[in-house]
Structures are given as structure tokens and as C-alpha cells.
Write a structure and sequence with these properties.
Blueprint (H helix, E strand, L loop, with lengths): L4 H10 L4 E4 L3 H8 L11 H11 L2 E4 L2 H6 L3 E4 L4 E2 L5 E2 L1 H11 L7 E4 L7 H14 L8 E4 L9 H7 L2 E5 L2 H14 L14 E3 L3 H32 L3 H8 L22 H8 L4 H11 L1 H13 L6 E5 L15 H10 L3 E5 L5 H6 L13 E4 L19 E4 L13 E4 L6
Helix pairs in contact: 1-3, 5-6, 9-11, 9-12, 13-14
Length: 424
């Protein structure tokens, strides 16, 4: 019942289905049953949650096996983590799958939405479910993979906007998944798609798994290319943003803007899953290396224009990985702070979405606007940062705008340098 699972449960319940949301966190369970969103920032979640809880269509519990026993469909959105080498840690998902297997009965549909390496649904989870249930996957129960394709903060909008991809371990599993998602989702009309917007059956769980990894890995490669262009442009005095605008004026062209960390928090993870499947993918590895090096490059760039950072207090604006989203998983803030410490600087962190206590829990020293400092780096594109002025950053004489948020001469007391722009 996290930032994807809870909106999904609310969406299913709003379509008239009886939904049981399970989570290992008892506080999350209590919040949901009280009709209160356990995390802020998801558009329309609070009002929709109140409605489906009041109607009795959504209840929450920590009893996974008992909930599965009462259900015809099980949708799994448990996190999968990877280490720095890209090796998946299946611990949480395996535990959840064991609990599910002990509760499924004949006719149950199990659909995994957590992004997985290709082959995981069939070769790992089907076997666990069979062992725990004594049933045969694809015969006694149905098994499919259907990747989530939504951004936190706009889940309900994205559920309508993008086709829902499904793939089963056999034909009947794929058809059951297609029928289920057609009963719980509604789709916007789009004339830009090759076929009608809706639930698209890709024919196998492996194809559906690859579709998710392919689209996120493509974005990572695209971002890596933009970042390479930005670094070269900065060295040549070229404004990469005008170049990108020109490139994107061509039909079918789309080049991401560069940045210290751009894209969703999943972008650093899923290419590693792909590399776990396909370690010979040199283009993917090069892009991942280029993107992971951007925080340290940003700090080097700040030092180039500011001078030695030793003993200097440097404000990092943004702990979140993306503007407007309260999530620090794989945010560039950690690498930036680490790089600043290596330079001998004193890093401070500001984020309008986090309290001082929350920032301290992340091992950061909080910063409030109006406090003196020497330099600043804009790491997250929070809307609040686009309107800062010199009074907000007293004493700051150098700002590295890693998201191209600031207007020219917005800060009269500081020199502002934009990552990838034609800086003097």
C-alpha cells in the first residue's frame, strides 16, 4: 500500500470492486482504514480514499494470506531492490509470494506489477506459488505480469493516459489479466497511438517484463546522451538548451534536457535490471555510468566557477529526486553531499517537502532560506525554487542551476551558472 499500490487499490475500488489492501506496516493499515492518506503529494488520492473507504469497497489489513484466500485477483506491488552492482534482492518479493501462494485457490489470477528482470515471473514466482499452493500455474491458477507505467503524484492521470500492458505465462493467463484490467481501468481517447488506448496483451509475461525495462532503459540512454552533450557544450561555451530545442523541432525527435538527476527514481534502477539480464549491453552501461557521474561533475563545475570549496558552506536545494514529489530514493542529493564533503565543503540541505527532523534522519544538516551560506546547487526542480531571490540566499556568491530553473539576473548578489549552458 505504498505510493503506487494504494492509488491502484483506490482506483479498483472506485470501479465498484471489493478491494483488500495489504501492507506489513500497521500504521499504514490504520491510516487507510481511517480514510487518511499515509503519504502526501498524490493528486486526488485523499478525496478518492475517503469515498471508497466509506463505501466499504476498500479495507486494509496486514494479513496477506487471509486476504488472498478471500480474493479472486491478487495484484503485487512489493518493491524489488538492486545493489550497486545491479544484483536484485528478491527478499521482500519472495516473502510476499510465499504468503500469496498459501492463500490462492483454483481460479485465482495473480498479477505482478513490480518491475522485474525478464523471466522472473515464470522462472521464479510461478515455482514459489506452485510449491506453496500445491496448484499448477496456468492451469489451476492464472499468472501474469503487468508493469506499472505511472509517475507518483499523477497516478490516476497516468492510469487513464497510457495503455495497460499485460502478458501471461500462457494464453489463458494473459486473457484473464486483460479482462481484469479492463474491468478496473478507464482510458483517455488518444489518436496518437498505433491502436486504441486500453489493455494491450503482449502475448507473454517475458514480453511485458521487457517492455517496462526497455522504455525506462531507453530514457536512461537518452538522458545519458543529453548529459554527454551538456558536458561538451559547457566546455565549448555552447548553450545545450537551444540545441535541444532545435533537435526536438524535428518530427519524431525527443532529446531529454540534461540535469544532475533527471527522470523518475526508477531510472537508475531498471537499467541495472536490464544489464543483469544482458551484461553485454555496452550502450546501456555507458549511459548508466554517464548519468551516475553527473552529481560529482556538478560539484566539480561549482568549484570551477566558485573557487576552492574547502570550508565553504554549500546549500543543496532539493532532497527529493524530482520536483513536487516527496521521495529521496536514488536522489542525486546523496552523491552531491558526498562529493561536497570530499572537497572539504560544509553541505546544507533544503527541501520544502521535508521537515528538519526528516532531513536530519537522512543525515543532512537542514538549511532555511535567509541563513548565510557561500554557494548553492539546485538539485531538484521544486516549483518553490523558481521564485527564490537574493534575500533567500544571503552571502551566496555562486549558484549552480542544475535544472535550469532560474531566470537571468534573478539573483543579483550571485553568479548563476547553468549546467550545460553557455556559461562565461
Amino acid at each position: 500500500m505504498g505510493k503506487i499500490g494504494l492509488p491502484l487499490a483506490v482506483q479498483f475500488a472506485s470501479m465498484g470492486h471489493k478491494v483488500i489492501g495489504t501492507d506489513v506496516n500497521e500504521n499504514t493499515v490504520k491510516f487507510i482504514n481511517d480514510g487518511l492518506e499515509p503519504f502526501p503529494g498524490e493528486a486526488y488520492l485523499q478525496e478518492k480514499l475517503v469515498q471508497v473507504v466509506a463505501s466499504g469497497n476498500l479495507v486494509a489489513t496486514s494479513d496477506t494470506t487471509g486476504s488472498v484466500e478471500k480474493s479472486e485477483v491478487v495484484v503485487v506491488v512489493v518493491p524489488l531492490f538492486v545493489d550497486s552492482e545491479g544484483v536484485p534482492d528478491f527478499g521482500w518479493l519472495d516473502d510476499a509470494t510465499v504468503s500469496i501462494g498459501r492463500g490462492i485457490k483454483k481460479g485465482t489470477l495473480v498479477s505482478y506489477e513490480t518491475t522485474l528482470p525478464v523471466g522472473t515471473t515464470r522462472n521464479r514466482f510461478a515455482k514459489i506459488l506452485e510449491v506453496e499452493s500445491g496448484l499448477t500455474a496456468g492451469v489451476d491458477f492464472y499468472l501474469a505480469f503487468s508493469p506499472e507505467r505511472v509517475f507518483t503524484g499523477r497516478v490516476f492521470e497516468d492510469l487513464r493516459k497510457y495503455p495497460k500492458l499485460v502478458g501471461g505465462i500462457n494464453e489463458v493467463s494473459g486473457q484473464k489479466a486483460k479482462e481484469f484490467y479492463e474491468s478496473v481501468l478507464e482510458f483517455d481517447y488518444r489518436n496518437d497511438l498505433p491502436k486504441e488506448n486500453g489493455v494491450w496483451n503482449l502475448g507473454s509475461c517475458e514480453a511485458s517484463e521487457l517492455a517496462k525495462l526497455a522504455e525506462t532503459t531507453y530514457r536512461d540512454v537518452n538522458i545519458g546522451l543529453a548529459n554527454q552533450f551538456a558536458r561538451f557544450s559547457e566546455s565549448q561555451g555552447i548553450d545545450i538548451y537551444s540545441v535541444i530545442e532545435a533537435c526536438n523541432s524535428q518530427p519524431f525527435s525527443h532529446l531529454h534536457q540534461p540535469g544532475i538527476a533527471v527522470g523518475g527514481h526508477c531510472i537508475p534502477i531498471y537499467p541495472r535490471m536490464y544489464l543483469w539480464n544482458d551484461p553485454s549491453a555496452t550502450i546501456v552501461q555507458a549511459a548508466r555510468d554517464a548519468n551516475s557521474n553527473m552529481p560529482s561533475y556538478a560539484v566539480d563545475m561549482l568549484e570551477k566557477y566558485h573557487g576552492s570549496l574547502k570550508g565553504q558552506s554549500v546549500v543543496v536545494l532539493g532532497a527529493s529526486y524530482r520536483g513536487g514529489v516527496k521521495e529521496t530514493a536514488f536522489s542525486g542529493v546523496f552523491a552531491i553531499v558526498e562529493a561536497l564533503i570530499k572537497k572539504g565543503a560544509v553541505p546544507l540541505v533544503n527541501d520544502p517537502l521535508y521537515t528538519h527532523e526528516e532531513l536530519k534522519a537522512l543525515m543532512f544538516t537542514p538549511y532555511d532560506f535567509g541563513m548565510p551560506a557561500d554557494a548553492a546547487i539546485i538539485q531538484a526542480n521544486h516549483l518553490e525554487y523558481s521564485s527564490i531571490n537574493s534575500d533567500d540566499l544571503p552571502g551566496v556568491r555562486t549558484v549552480l542551476d542544475g535544472r535550469k530553473l532560474l531566470k537571468p539576473n534573478q539573483l543579483h548578489n550571485a553568479n548563476v551558472f547553468v549546467l550545460g549552458a553557455s556559461n562565461p
